[in-house]
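Hi, here's the filled form for the chain we discussed.

Project: internal
Contact: R.S.
Residues: 343
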Amino acid sequence: MRLTDAQHLWQPERGYLNTATYGLPPTPAWDALQQALADWRTGRTPWEVWDESTARSRAALARLMGVDAADVAVGSTVSQLLAPVAAALPAGSRVLVPDIEFTSNLFPWLARSELDVRTVPAAELASSVDEGTTAVAFSLVQSATGKVAAYEEIVATARAHDALVVVDATQACGWLPFDAALADVVAVAAYKWLMSPRGAAFAYLRPEIRSWLVPHAANWYAGADVHGSYYGPPLRLALDARRFDISPAWFCYVGTAPAVELIEEIGVAAIHEHNVALANRFLAGLGRPPSNSAIVTVDAPSAPERLAAAGIRASVRVGQIRASFHVYNRQSDVDAAVAALAG
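And the returned structure, exactly as it came back:
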């Protein structure tokens, strides 16, 4: 499906430039969720029907990231999915993290007081990995700045020093093409660029590391036979990444499956081209150099007030305006924001 042909499937208000905070659902996702809520009210639908969306979401997300669905666990948040990795590291392990990193990929490491967590500027991450590094954890796209990490360079340096690579792709997956299989762990919250209800999240877990991770939150949904794991011992977990699943919030995944499948149909490469073109148009209008990111930040006097007066919705991060552009945005959104800031 061509991106321009798909844009009618969203109903954004003019000037919504805030996908980095939360994405807007396409009509198929919105309609599926409304139907599920209506069915919940009457009790006409068995939960297994809603749960089919979990499998659809897992499969579609795996295809987007270029990995096998058997290597993808489902959960609710990035920090919850990263917790087993942090818990499994030996005491004294050194974890290298950017100095401005969203805390979902920082607090799980800091919560383990036995770990040696060190921060460096994001641009120095690859050069800071050495023989003492156990793991390097970073966002593929930084939430605060929109900076795209030197993914392949960091991976190459980490591999040279036998360090784990742990990636938060929440601000990337859905608009930035990347190969998740290069990393050991890639976690994604779906409510931003995947335009899903908050409460759906995924983690790619490389098969080689799953053997030493403990699924501390395992319940019936992590069972080898889900419907045969309701009661009693023995422990009988799935052999693949499903052993790290938690019981899904059904309605979140009801809305996630059609949203991720639509992204797949349009194509991440086409979305990337569209988003970056709008971001660069925004920057050019303000006399800034182009960016390779769908998330950009600018420093402008009285910017929040000017944008609010013009009906433009963006965010403020680290003292700057953060604007983010996605499939439902158009040039008119960009031009309105530029006019507000330039004025």
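Let me know if anything looks off before we file it.
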